[in-house]
Structure formats: C-alpha cells, structure tokens
C-alpha cells in the first residue's frame, strides 16, 4: 500500500489487515493505556477544504497516540490549485512531512496530490468516496456482530461518497448490501459493477433499489448518512422534499431484524435522515462507530507511515 485513496486499490487481504491492526491498536490502548510510539518522528499534514470533527480529531489524535505529529491546514491555507498548482503543493509537502491526509471536494485533486509527491496520501473524504469511514464501519460491524461474512447491511438514503465506499468494502469482506435511495440519488451502475466484481463469494447479494421498506428485510445493520452533503447546500430544499420516505425511524427499523444495529457516519441532521428516537435507541451504535474512527485511522497511519 503506497496510498489510501480508494478501497478499490486494496486487496481484500490488505483490507482485513487494516481491520486486524485497528483491533490490535484499540486493544493495546484500552489495556495498556497507551500505544507503542511506532510513528515517533513522523509528521502528517492534514489538508481540509471542508469542515470536519471526526476526521480531523481522529487523525490528529491518532498521530499523537502513535508518537508522531500532525499539522492542520484549514481551507484558508492551501487552496488546492488556487494559490499554486496541486503538483507543487505535493512536491513541497514531500520535503517536510511523511504523509498527507486530505479532505477535498474533487477526487481528481486527491489523485493529483498522490501522483506528484513522494509521500503517502490518505483520503479524508472527497465528493466521490470516504474509504477511511468504510474501514471504521467494517471494523465496528465486525466488533458488534462478530463476523462480516453474510452480514446484511442496508444503507438508506443518498447514494453518495459514504455509501459508495461502504458498498465496496462490504463486497470485499463477504457481506450482503442493499442501498435504497430515491430515483436520481442512487449509486451508479459503475458502483454496482465494481462491487459485484470485488465480491469474495458469488452468493453475496448486492442491490441498488428505491424501496426503503422492502430493502429492510433481514437487515443486520441499518445505515444512513445526511441527505445534503457538504458542497450541496444549494440543493437542500429539493432534497428535503425528496428524501423523507428514507428517514431512519422506529417504523422503518421495525422492518429490519429485531436485533439490527443502527449506524450513521455522522454528523447527523437529527429530524432529517434519522430521528432522535432511532439515533439514541438501544440499537444505535453511532458513538462507538465514531470512536472507532480513531482506531481505524491509526491502522491506516501505522500501515503507511511506519
Ligand atoms: N464522518 C466524518 O467523516 O465526520 P467529519 O465530517 O466530522 O470528519
Ligand atoms: N456525505 C457526507 C459525509 C460526511 C462525513 C458529506 O459528504 O458531507
């Protein structure tokens, strides 16, 4: 692994190795109070074009826990391609730090950052995908259910970055996944084909559908994300009109398995894609999922920066 840009670049074995390492680093910190400082003298630059709570804090604390250092570069600093070319940003950072984590609008800008530098680049979310979130989600499901094979995930809502990475990750780890989205907001046929091609077993069911109620059948995991992602704010009114049937609430969850878990990458727009009742229910694992960003990010950092 030279970069962490897209789960498509990993083998299933590499993905499982990240999950195992996340489990090890989590257990090491919980049982011994600290991690071994395997990234001593290593530095990570963190470029953010969009806001963040989880990604920024989990990567920064991940570096701290592993003995390294992180530098936060907010939207006012770099202006990807605005103040100087992305290639120049990448070459300059390669002389200062040992890795870059970037949250960008354009996925091609992330790829350019990776192409022109000599250090690992980690995807902290683009308009296209969010693979660091997906590693966390797989790790969280594995912790809760005890396995990934044959677990059914039902994602309800916008067919966007988070759903795209989770679908691929589910396919690569033996899960079944159904994505239920309104017409016009589904993942693409390419996403479906990519997931089908990366299944580890021909018996895995992958489906993109529009009926959220039918999708719930046999769901072990019910997952959602915001209806209006960062950068889509001008579409808010139209999305608020289209998405209400896709809200995760007690009535919809009643169609899933009785012991299903509820997940959300967060931030949650409570009252829109998820009700308080669902987000705060006994079935919700939202905050364990959020904590696991820390452990999963450390696994990515330890793999690339050591
Ligand atoms: N889930 C996630 O990436 O959260 P932030 O936008 O707060 O980083
Ligand atoms: N789809 C959301 C995810 C936030 C973590 C967004 O892009 O804003």
* Largest sheet descriptor: 5 strands, parallel
CATH class of the largest domain: Alpha Beta
Give the CATH topology of the largest domain. Rossmann fold
Strand order of the largest sheet: 7-6-5-8-9
Task: Please report the distance between the alpha carbons of the first and last residues.
Answer: 12 Å
Give the topology string: H per helix, E per strand. HEHEHHEHEHEHEHEHEHHEHH
pLDDT < 50 runs, ≥5 residues = none
Q: What are the distinct ligands in this entry?
A: phosphoric acid mono(formamide)ester, norvaline
By DSSP (H or I, 4+ residues per run), the number of helices equals: 13
Number of domains: 2
Say which CATH homologous superfamily of the largest domain is assigned: Aspartate/ornithine carbamoyltransferase
- The coarse silhouette is globular
Strand content: 5-15%
Write a structural description.
The chain is an alpha/beta fold. The protein folds into 2 domains: 7-130 and 292-305, Rossmann fold, CATH 3.40.50.1370; 133-289, Rossmann fold (3-Layer(aba) Sandwich), CATH 3.40.50. Helices cover 43% and strands 13% of the residues. The strands form 2 sheets. The protein has a 5-stranded parallel sheet, covered by helices on one side. The longest helix has 21 residues, at 12-32. The termini are close together. The mean pLDDT is 97. Bound molecules: phosphoric acid mono(formamide)ester and norvaline. Residues 125, 160-162, 225-226, 229-230, 265 line the site of norvaline.
């Amino acid at each position: 692994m030279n970069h962490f840009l897209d789960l498509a670049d990993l083998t299933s074995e590499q993905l499982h190795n990240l999950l195992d390492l996340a489990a090890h680093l989590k257990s090491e910190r919980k049982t011994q109070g600290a991690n071994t400082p395997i990234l001593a003298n290593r530095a990570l630059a963190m470029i953010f074009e969009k806001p963040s709570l989880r990604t920024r804090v989990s990567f920064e604390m991940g570096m701290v826990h592993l003995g390294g250092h992180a530098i936060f570069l907010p939207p006012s600093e770099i202006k990807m391609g605005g103040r100087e070319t992305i290639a120049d940003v990448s070459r300059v950072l390669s002389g200062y730090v040992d890795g870059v984590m970037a949250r960008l609008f354009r996925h091609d800008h992330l790829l350019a950052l990776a192409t022109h530098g000599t250090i690992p680049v980690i995807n902290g979310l683009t308009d296209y995908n969010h693979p660091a979130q997906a590693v966390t989600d797989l790790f969280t499901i594995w912790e809760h259910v005890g396995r990934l094979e044959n677990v059914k995930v039902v994602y309800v809502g916008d067919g966007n970055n988070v759903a795209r990475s989770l679908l691929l990750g589910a396919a690569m780890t033996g899960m079944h996944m159904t994505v239920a989205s309104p017409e016009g907001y589904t993942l693409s046929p390419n996403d479906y084909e990519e997931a089908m091609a990366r299944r580890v077993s021909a018996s895995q069911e992958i489906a993109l559908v529009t009926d959220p109620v039918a999708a719930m059948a046999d769901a072990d995991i019910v997952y959602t994300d915001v209806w209006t992602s960062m950068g889509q704010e001008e579409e808010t009114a139209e999305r608020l009109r289209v998405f209400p049937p896709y809200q995760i609430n007690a009535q919809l969850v009643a169609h899933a398995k009785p012991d299903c878990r509820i997940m959300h990458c967060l931030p949650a727009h409570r009252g829109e894609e998820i009700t308080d009742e669902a987000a705060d229910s006994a079935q919700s694992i939202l905050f364990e999922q959020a904590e696991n960003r820390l452990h999963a990010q450390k696994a990515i950092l330890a793999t690339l920066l050591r």
